[in-house]
Amino acid sequence: MRREDGFTLIEVLIAAAIMIVVLLATLSVADGYWSTDRRNQTQSDAQAALRAATDEIARELRNVASPGNQSGFERATATDLVFDVIDPNGPDGGSNTYSLSRVRYCFDNSVPTNQKLWRETQTWVTASPPTLPATESCPDVTWNGVRQVLLDHVVNTGTQPLFTYDTSTLSRIGTVLTDFYVDYKPGSAPGPSELKTSVFARNTVQPPTAAIAATALGNGKVLLDGGGSTTPANQNLTYEWQDGSTYVGCSNSPTSNPCPAPVIFTYTATTTGPHTFTLTVVAPSGLTATATQTVNVT
Prior knowledge:
It contains one helix and 15 strands; from the N terminus they run αβββββββββββββββ. By secondary structure, it is an alpha+beta fold. It is elongated, with a radius of gyration of 34 Å.
């Protein structure tokens, strides 16, 4: 009844120290979990923004169209893409009967800590579209339609182009590759998120390619061969041949344009000496291509 057993001061201090160690270890584990969760959430947000932006660009690129033109692409650089689309909600007044409009995606690096991808549109009511603005500013105040930031915190560098193309010729672009890097916290984990997508512009009409081979055979004869001519969609071509300004090899009469002829045949010239032959190939779309070659007829 009289015993007063208890803890000594040293025992209390040791117990307190052990409790502090256990508490710090628990908090460290919890902090690591929270840090990992924040990194995962940041990465998920970046990937969601990338998917939304890429889907929007792909949807519009698949509907590139410019009635009466070979291609709907008007500018195609690593950081600036301009193309034509038919907007069902566009202006239906004036002479713009197809409700044609321009869409632009451009890279704004004016704020290095928060580079942006902008989307701009330009509309008109005239029969002919206005001149494409020459300025390289992004965004550009001359674009009179919708202007919005499609993607922010873009970290693409000069060696990481936003847009690449299957050809450098505007009229022949058929595929656009988009490649975006986004990082909401540069310099810290998990690092940039990347999304790369290849988009086929299904409504663009590609012109054919003409290839001519003219071979002098002697006795005034020349073998004319256009078999190397091609179309992107492997369509059937119509061939028209000229010796100077005179159509030759025609399957119709009189020999005037249009003048369908065989892809390969032997032609007999009326004179010897240098002759310039021209091959014009016509695709079903009406687009054409030409090639010329000069040979010495003997």
